[in-house]
Amino acid sequence: MNTGPQQPQNTMEQNSKNEKLDLHRVDHNNELLTTNQGGRVSNTDDSLKAGARGPTLMEDFHFREKMTHFDHERIPERVVHARGFGVHGYFQVYEPMAELTKAKFLQDPTKKTPVFVRFSTVVGSKGSADTVRDVRGFATKFYTEDGNYDLVSNNIPVFFIQDAIKFPDVVHAIKPEPHNEIPQASAAHDTFWDFVVNTPETAHMIMWLLSDRAIPRSFRMMEGFGVNTFRFVNEQGKARFVKFHWKPLLGVHSLVWDEAQKLAGKDPDYHRRDLWDAIDMGEYPEYELGVQIVEEEEEFNFDFDILDATKIWPEEMIPVKRIGKMTLDNNVANFFAETEQVAFHPGHVVPGIDFSNDPLLQGRLFSYLDTQLIRLGGPNFHEIPINRPMAPIHNNQRDGYHRMTIDRGRVSYSPNSLQNDAPHPAPEADHGYVHHAEKVEGQKVRERSESFRDHYRQATLFWNSMSSAEKQHIIEAFHFEVGSVMDKQIKQRVVNMFNNVDGQLATQIAVGVGADSPAALGGNGVTATSPAVSQENTVKDARTRKVAILLENGFNYPEVTQVMSAFNGAGVHTEIVSKNLGMLTSVDGQQLEVGKNYATTASIKYDAVYVPGGPQSINSLMMQGDALHFVNEAFKHAKAIGATNEGVDLLMASAIQGVNMAGGNTQDQLITEMGVVTVRNVTDTNQFSQEFTNAIAQHRHWSRQNKKQMIPA
């Protein structure tokens, strides 16, 4: 069994990217103010005038430079993936991959290849919220010795369309409607669903989009998929089809819809703050790189086309081989210079990685480069520090906007004799890039392969694979999304379209959106499942989870600190939440500091809630509507809830019903039911802490999903 990458013999590789960027990072502390030309500035508060009340003079070069730069500080935001957040890290392969590919960065387990990763939402503008229902981008730039390699992924393994010529259409449809620029960062409107019902190939992607995958708990708990089909090519020229996967070591976990909506208002930066804080605390997100491999001679052995971007390669059919690990360990120094200016392109490949005839991929190879040219001001965007390769650059390209390289000599063409034909092409033996010699022939036609015509079978496979809770969430998502559509004809067509996926699903959709149920239950006969696509089967881990501890004066200090210590040992974070900020005093005079009050936080920002004992503390909490709401809301969102000793009284006074909790004055039995962990009359909380940690690791407790509460949270 592979134990992971070996430790490198030296740290040159892991530090080289940061050192390269450090050349462009400037610390302005204790420095004198200058212009961009280096001239020192004596006053930056007053413009140069003809008299104290006179007109500003044009000769004020400092004013003009300062204002001109301000006027031009913003660059066009990305059409899609505008809201993003980037981090640095490194990648190590587990073992040499020479049999599959000649890519150098996939050969040496001791080498750390620097990476930069940008996570993003697709639809919203730069100012939209992190937690909207949307696809998430997961783009990785590998700074390899053979040049930059960009693996441009999403957190959903399929896409809306099969051919890139439809990309402007799907984006125009899902973006805010042009007549009123409403709604922002949402698919819940007429134009998008009009596109869906007229484009059956979207069916599979819609199922993923309306699942929990579209509202991740964290970037750290989110898969990434290359979506398109690529090729690996080895030194012998043997090619194989490949799909790429990023697998988070913390598992794949999501928010619930009500929680996601509230977070969009209370903390629109929730995902980026979560990632920043994790890295700042040294809890570095880790992802394993996995590959699915199909031999070229097996290309047509499946009941789906492996080049169709609206299809997955089921992992049970084509296993994912985990070949390396990426660790994200370094936050950016400047958001604009790094995250905003980074440029990804699926055409940035290295020897050993090549393309397939996937028509969505073929169009992306044009679109991404074309986009960078206008966003970043011309063809020299590769010279921006965050985009600059570690490998040396030698070619005859010259000039253009923002040229930073100062090229020596008079030769800028090939072939030439004045410079001995330098720079000259690199032979394949020196890792010169050689495209895979695929035989291509056929008539020029505007049509799609018949093998791309099946739009519903994998959508049904996905539906069949969902747990009952996940199915219920998809139905509720349809109710919100399609229920927001104004055109009744479109609503009915959605029901009719998804009757091709599953008749019961279509019936449930119809009930919630005010449309007619199908006259006859549809479907397509698919009964198979793919357990890998259900989040119920993911890794369950309490590490890095965050627990709110509700306290007031008069709490039990030994009890609280015992539990906090146990959580700390399990990698679980705690934060004390109270009515007011400041210090709280325990029964025995010990003090703890409040981290947040109810005005600055909410249960939606935590993975679990703990209520410790102390009669005075609990009596005070039971008089606070905010504290009761905190518990009720956490219960509604299926989070782990724990209470010890008198803390159980607060849970019993809340709106939680139908859950067995420790009652009476003599009972000391630990009770766990539906993620609610309680115990009375204990001084040793070790067993409670272990049981509660296990409950937190489950992420959510869906068995209580349909339990009633006396009042809505």
TrEMBL record:
One of its GO terms (molecular function) is catalase activity. Heme binds at R78, R118, F167, R364, Y368, R375. InterPro entries: Catalase, Catalase_AS, Catalase_clade2, Catalase_clade2_helical, Catalase_core, Catalase_haem_BS, Catalase_immune_responsive, Catalase_large_C. GO terms for biological process: hydrogen peroxide catabolic process; response to oxidative stress. Decomposes hydrogen peroxide into water and oxygen; serves to protect cells from the toxic effects of hydrogen peroxide. Keywords: Heme, Hydrogen peroxide, Iron, Metal-binding, Oxidoreductase, Peroxidase. This is Catalase. Residues 34-53 are annotated as: Disordered. Belongs to the catalase family. HPII subfamily. It comes from Alkaliphilus metalliredigens (strain QYMF). It comes from the Bacteria. Residues 34-422 form the Catalase core domain. There is a cross-link at H345-Y368 (3'-histidyl-3-tyrosine (His-Tyr)). SUPFAM superfamilies: Class I glutamine amidotransferase-like, Heme-dependent catalase-like. GO terms for cellular component: cytosol. The active site is at H81, N154. Residues 34-45 have a biased composition (Polar residues). Transmembrane segments: none annotated. It catalyses: 2 H2O2 = O2 + 2 H2O. PROSITE patterns: CATALASE_1, CATALASE_2, CATALASE_3. Its EC number is 1.11.1.6. Its cofactor is heme.
